[in-house]
Inverse folding.
């Protein structure tokens, strides 16, 4: 059974945060986290393995910001192919023989067409270069996540569809009222993404209760994904502490599952402990009809 078929039958647990896990492991916040795929591959692979051992059936590559625009901030924009290929390889190695799907993580540029043109960037090309390298490295699907603007996400989705028709998840960050920052209602955004070829649509990077609230109006929008954060962090003794416990995270996760979400994982602050609690509760849980 493939990924999309399985989503029709049962609710699948995804992984949790990579960035906050790396920082918790001692990586400085100002580091280029995606470069660690080459300089510290064992650390990255170890985090993938923790999520797999916790019960994740889908893991995302450590490539969220590995596009030319973001890597240029670290003077690494010439390493797009290398870093994304390696990110996919590490995830594939961790998932080998375990029935776990590897999703190529692609984040936004946070740049509209006018801003990109002003600095001589072709957004479609940037997304295409990153996605192509992830697919070459062995990613089995693409996870376009943490997009604030529907227009930019549609550009990324078109770039992906031009390369390969493997499954694609499109995930947005909505405002509290269930709209995007351009005032597009979330359900309308989901419909446009589905029309453009998205297989799964959803939200990530907002708290569990906020995810639950904004997805209530979207139960009929096709297969849904939810990757909430573990709340807003506080800095305590130099560490970021996230307030949502694994138990509370799981309680909301089960409510999301009951409301029609098929793919459930975590974003910022969601640890292997959060995913383990969630996955145990979701074990063999059939998707609502």
């Amino acid at each position: 059974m493939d990924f999309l078929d399985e989503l029709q039958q049962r609710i699948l647990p995804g992984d949790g945060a990579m960035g906050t896990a790396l920082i918790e492991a001692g990586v400085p916040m100002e580091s280029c986290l995606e470069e660690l795929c080459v300089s510290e591959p064992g650390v990255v692979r170890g985090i993938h393995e923790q999520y797999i051992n916790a019960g994740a059936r889908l893991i995302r590559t450590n490539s969220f910001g590995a596009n030319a625009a973001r890597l240029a901030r670290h003077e690494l924009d010439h390493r797009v192919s290398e870093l994304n290929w390696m990110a996919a390889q590490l995830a594939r190695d961790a998932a080998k023989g375990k029935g776990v799907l590897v999703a190529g993580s692609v984040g936004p540029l946070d740049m509209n067409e006018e801003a990109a043109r002003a600095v001589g960037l072709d957004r479609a090309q940037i997304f295409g270069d990153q996605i192509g390298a992830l697919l070459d490295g062995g990613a089995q699907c693409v996870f376009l996540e943490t997009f604030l603007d529907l227009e930019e996400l549609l550009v990324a989705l078109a770039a992906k569809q031009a390369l390969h028709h493997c499954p694609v998840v499109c995930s947005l960050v909505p405002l509290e009222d269930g709209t995007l920052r351009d005032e597009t209602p979330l359900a309308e955004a989901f419909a446009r993404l589905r029309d453009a070829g998205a297989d799964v649509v959803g939200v990530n990077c907002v708290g569990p209760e906020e995810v639950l609230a904004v997805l209530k109006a979207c139960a009929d929008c096709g297969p849904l994904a939810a990757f909430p954060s573990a709340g807003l962090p506080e800095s305590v003794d130099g560490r970021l502490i996230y307030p949502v416990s694994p138990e509370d995270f799981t309680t909301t996760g089960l409510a999301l599952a009951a409301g029609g979400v098929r793919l459930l994982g975590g974003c910022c602050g969601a640890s292997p402990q959060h995913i383990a609690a969630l996955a145990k509760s979701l074990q063999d849980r059939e998707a609502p009809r």
Summary: The longest strand covers residues 141-147. The domain at 3-23+33-282 is CATH 3.20.20.330 (TIM Barrel).
